[in-house]
Write a structure and sequence with these properties.
- This protein has 106 residues and is an alpha+beta fold.
- The longest helix has 17 residues.
- It binds L-tyrosinamide (TYC).
- Involved in the modulation of the specificity of the ClpAP-mediated ATP-dependent protein degradation.
Length: 106
């Protein structure tokens, strides 16, 4: 019988271990856009109601949007960001304000 070398498993040293794939899911920024018609108090209310901001934080972000044109109001998973955008857009439409809310991959 042939004398097979004991430690030759035939894999010629193939590296089988790979880096564990632990890619985090992408995050999405939710943005509020300025317009000329939506009342400031309405925007402040939206930021308190849907983004859990206190009155001072909400007022500050509203003013940033008013002056700069837009601001990021939060960063969320895709599903949560999409829900926030829908909630804000529905709420604004129901109150007949043209407020716009969008999301953008971070
Ligand atoms: N520019 C609006 C006004 O003067 C106020 C406003 C702020 C509107 C922020 C939208 O996202 C907005 N009444």
């Amino acid at each position: 019988m042939a004398n097979k070398p004991k430690d030759d498993d035939g894999d010629a040293g193939v590296v089988l271990e790979t880096k564990p794939k632990t890619k985090r899911p992408p995050l999405y920024k939710v943005l509020i856009l300025n317009d000329d018609y939506t009342p400031m108090e309405f925007v402040v209310h939206v930021l308190e109601r849907f983004f859990g901001l206190n009155h001072a934080q909400a007022f500050e972000i509203m003013l940033t949007v008013h002056k700069k044109g837009l601001a990021v109001v939060g960063v969320f998973s895709f599903e949560v960001a999409e829900t926030k955008v829908t909630q804000v857009m529905d709420f604004a439409r129901r109150h007949q304000h043209p407020l716009q809310c969008t999301m953008e991959k971070e």
